[in-house]
UniProtKB/TrEMBL annotation:
High-level lineage: Bacteria, Pseudomonadati, Pseudomonadota, Gammaproteobacteria, Lysobacterales
Cross-referenced Gene3D superfamilies: ACP-like
Cross-referenced InterPro entries: ACP-like_sf (IPR036736), PP-bd_ACP (IPR009081)
Taxonomic source organism: Lysobacter brunescens
PROSITE patterns: CARRIER
Pfam families named in the record: PP-binding
Protein name stated in the entry: Phosphopantetheine-binding protein
């Protein structure tokens, strides 16, 4: 599971569980800010991504990489996953 669409499915399923938002309102171009995620939501997101995708998200990544949309988040997860898969 290392492409953007697969990661997005995991992330969007979680967001739909956590927030009272319409499924049509959660797209790759949805801004994270518009979802009004709180700190507990971010912790849950970290746990689910680690469990289902195998990537540990660094909380500072959102600040350091200016991750503003779900697309940027999913691309970041894929980037980490692919970097971990490259033999040293």
């Amino acid at each position: 599971m290392s492409n953007v669409e697969n990661v997005f499915q995991v992330v969007s399923d979680l967001i739909l569980e956590l927030k009272d938002v319409d499924e049509d309102g959660v797209t790759l171009d949805t801004t994270i800010e518009s979802l009004a995620l709180d700190s507990l939501d971010f912790v849950e997101l970290q746990l689910v991504v680690k469990k289902k995708v195998g990537v540990a998200l660094d909380p500072q990544a959102f600040a350091n990489r200016a991750i503003a949309t779900l697309r940027q988040l999913c691309e970041y997860v894929v980037e980490i996953k692919e970097a971990d898969a490259v033999p040293a």
